[in-house]
Amino acid sequence: MKLVTVLGGYGVFGSRISSALAAVEGAAVRVVGRDSKAGTQFAQSIGAEFRHADLINDESVRRAIAGSYLVIHSAGPFQGKDYRVAEMCLDCGAHYLDLADARQFVTGIGALHETAQRKGLFVTSGVSSVPAITFAMVSALKPEFRSIDEIKIALSPGNQNPRGAATIAAILTYLARPIEVWQGGHWVVRPGWGDAHRMHFPAPVGRRRVHNCEVPDLALFPSAFDASTVRFYAGVELNVINYTLSGLAWLRKYLAMKNLHQHADLFLRASLLLFSFGTKNGCLSVGLRGRGWDGSEIERRIAIVTEEDGPATPSSASIVLAKKILQHGPPRVGAVPCIGFLTLEELMAHLRPLGIRCVTTR
What we know:
The protein is an alpha/beta fold. The protein has helices at residues 14-22, 36-45, 58-65, 84-92, 103-107, 113-119, 129-141, 165-174, 217-224, 239-254, 264-272, 312-328, 344-351, and strands at residues 2-7, 27-33, 49-52, 70-73, 95-98, 122-125, 145-156, 178-183, 186-191, 197-201, 206-212, 229-234, 282-292, 297-306, 334-337, 357-361.
């Protein structure tokens, strides 16, 4: 049996990962977290083991991951964090992947490359909506293009989908902060949660407000796809929340509000007061504009649309990649961002049975 340890394994994303991998033949799952009661109850419900650990206590983490073949780190946020957990996995001989969406964290994972190579282990970061799934979506469209002028990515989850404080904290870290984006072949600075506009998503999502977000794609995709412009936007379904965040961004420019992310739990509780409003409909959309092989200007767009279980999409990347590692071993050794290890068809094979569809438009 190969032991897979899921840090944060009973959370919004971790619970889906743990459940899916507990059903894989030849795999044993260990759920790890701070809440022993909730963690034990969940682990028992899927036939897994639970171990208590707090990520700020290195010794408890070492005990929790001991004996693992693969460790999946789903306990964000990852903004401003170091690589101690990944380093402990390398020390204990475990492959490692995480669901980080923090730009600096994902793009900097190569700091562990030499150690991972020396130990023959696979370390990858960003095994979630960004950049793993978005990279697969762009790659699915790329064969139609001789050259890409613009990559435009947008995310809009439904308000009635489960969410955690980590997601809120991630937004609060870059709210009103300067974000470097690749625009017209140059790096330019744009404000976090700025450049607000309405964007049309496939039905039943429709038109929603989106804003600048700080994600790894902004740093990785310009060179990966030789694109002149790469932009990423996100927003929530309810405009009252979007406008509230925009108001906070405006205030942050003029007031000393350095540690907003430390109040993520408070903002989460406030957002849950509106949980009964809106829908579960969400979408991750990728649009490409450039030149086709005949030299003509073309545009293509692809979207993953959810109508029920929104968190199933971001958790799908780690589930699919973990299964591949369990069945065939790691795709390589070393430490790299998670781009190019998954195809859109592999992801959709997992998502379609869950009622999630892929829509392509020209």
